[in-house]
Amino acid sequence: xxxxxxxxxxxxxxxxxxxxxxxxxxxxxxxxxxxxxxxxxxxxxxxxxxxxxxxxxxxxxxxxxxxxxxxxxxxxxxxxxxxxxxxxxxxxxxxxxxxxxxxxxxxxxxxxxxxxxxxxxxxxxxxxxxxxxxxxxxxxxxxxxxxxxxxxxxxxxxxxxxxxxxxxxxxxxxxxxxxxxxxxxxxxxxxxxxxxxxxxxxxxxxxxxxxxxxxxxxxxxxxxxxxxxxxxxxxxxxxxxxxxxxxxxxxxxxxxxxxxxxxxxx
Length: 266
Prior knowledge:
alpha+beta, about 270 residues, 3 helices, 5 strands
């Protein structure tokens, strides 16, 4: 006789067992899927943050590199302009020296191509004109064309300043030197001129002058006001001692940058 209460008689119906298993599996799968989605969302967020950080770093690098390239380009352009100034003004100085060797008087030199104020009454033919074929033989080029950039002022030929040790140093008109001046040139061009001439720009600034006079142009006479400061003198505050011995250099005075080329030491 079979016992009605034996374990074999208490089996759970197959259909209910399958349902319990299915529900358990579904819950487990749902929890697993939910956890996977959370991990995926977290990974996606980290990926986005990493991409943003890399993009920011790349942008910063590109900006720095662009700035460096632009700065290098500006310096190179200034150097080309500085070289052009030095070549042209040196050619003028050389022509004047040649004219003087051939017997031309310093009082007869004529720079009338720069304007009517430069007309020299002592000069009666082309032989004493700097920018004529029969004289210095040089073509006249204004400052803007030489540096390939618009300028507020043109060349100035002045005899109001003295270069230390170039000639005599007395504070009178017998010792003022004849200079060709490019006033108010760009600062970077000024710095590059000095770099090319081996002149120190201390702390990135051109040598400092207390004054640089160019208000009276040369027309054959050495008269007019004289600067009390001596270019390349010994006073570090007003004489720009860094340019001592240089026949061509750039200095700062009165918040302007002046390039000068010595044409004639006196």
